[in-house]
Amino acid sequence: MQLRVNPAAPDFTGSVTPNWQLVTAGQTASYVIQIIPLNGFTGKVIMSATGLPSDATGSPTNNPIAGGSGSTTLAISTSNSTATGQYSITLTGTSGGLTDLLGPST
């Protein structure tokens, strides 16, 4: 009987804090994004946000994050005409062939 163990592939994960925010139309919500390397990952991570309400804009201030780890702020600016409601925003990180959903910190 034999067992062969291959090295784990480099990868990354991420966290976002806070998990949710409440703003009034015309205000900005800010989230901190942390990229965490796994298994020696040193690539650059390009982030994108989807699910923003119409009339709102947002992109990370430091994008991409190079060197495999780091943090940035995602500021989502609403306008006075942004519709009232609750929005689920998806933040995705991509590096080469790797894609990960960056979720809230627990």
Largest sheet: 5 strands, mixed
How many β-strand runs?
8
Helix and strand sequence: EEEEEEEE
Shape, per Cα inertia axes: elongated
As a whole number of angstroms, the C-alpha radius of gyration is: 17 Å
How many distinct helices? 0
Low-confidence stretches: none
Structural class: mainly beta
Average pLDDT for all residues: 92
Proportion of residues in extended strands = 35-45%
For the record, give the distance between the C-alpha atoms at the N and C termini, rounded to a whole number.
41 Å
Across the major sheet, the strand order is 4-5-2-1-8
How much helical structure, as a percent, in the residues? Answer: under 10%
Description of the molecule:
This protein has 106 residues and is an all-beta fold. The protein has a domain at 11-80. It contains no helices and 8 strands. It has strands at 11-17, 28-38, 46-50, 57-60, 70-77, 90-95, 98-101, 103-104. The strands form 2 sheets. Strands 4-5-2-1-8 form a 5-stranded mixed β-sheet, with no helix packed on it. The radius of gyration is 17 Å and the shape is elongated. The mean pLDDT is 92.
Q: Main attributes?
A:
8 strands; 0% helix; 5-stranded mixed sheet; elongated; 3-stranded antiparallel sheet
Secondary structure topology:
Blueprint: E1 11-17, E2 28-38, E3 46-50, E4 57-60, E5 70-77, E6 90-95, E7 98-101, E8 103-104
Parallel strand pairs: 1-8
Antiparallel strand pairs: 1-2, 2-5, 3-6, 4-5, 6-7
Summarize this entry quickly.
This protein is mainly β and 106 residues long.
